[in-house]
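so the lab meeting is tmrw and i was supposed to have these ready like two days ago... anyway. pasting both below. for each one the top line is the aa sequence and the line under it is the structure tokens. i havent really looked at them closely yet so no promises
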Amino acid sequence: MPSGEDGTPGQYYKPSMFLGISANTDHPEQAARLIDFLLNDRQAAGILGATRGIPVNETIREEIGPKLKDFDKTVADFQGSLEGTLNDPPQAPPSGDNALQTTFQRDYDQVSYGRMSPREAAENYVTEAKAELRS
């Protein structure tokens, strides 16, 4: 794997999936308890194993580690070999990032099919980016 001049690997820990709670939920406490259960409960960990990735909770990870087999064991062993050597993950993208990726792909396709010039696409993207990132 690529590494920096100081030998630091080019990777960072990234969850295999993110769990979140809608700001508009009618049941914020129950939703938070569900996420806590999925991440921190020993019984849940015994059922889930590594199906949602190698657990982030160190205690849970240590408990299920010896039970992992095949590919899950390979992934856990590799992750363990990197312990203490990785940098922090990059900052989360700003709100609106997903919409801008969609805008970029749409405009890229329009340029690819000759329906829009690169300059028009760039101008459109900048206009939409400014509007999206302001909201």
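ok protien two:
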Amino acid sequence: MPASILEEVRHLLGAALIRDTTTRLSCPSCGSAHVAQVLGDNGGISYVCTACGHSWS
């Protein structure tokens, strides 16, 4: 059990940062990791590579 709430928050933030780095997207066209998540025309989520302009959902 954590000694303080601050320690628990640090633990949770550390876990979130680790998870974030393992789930990064890469462009299927050029392989770049420079990908933006955007709202699609139909309300769904789409992705756009900011390196080459390729988009997908």
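from a quick look at the 2nd one: DSSP finds one helix and three strands in the chain. Residues 18-22 have pLDDT under 50 and may be disordered. will dig more after coffe
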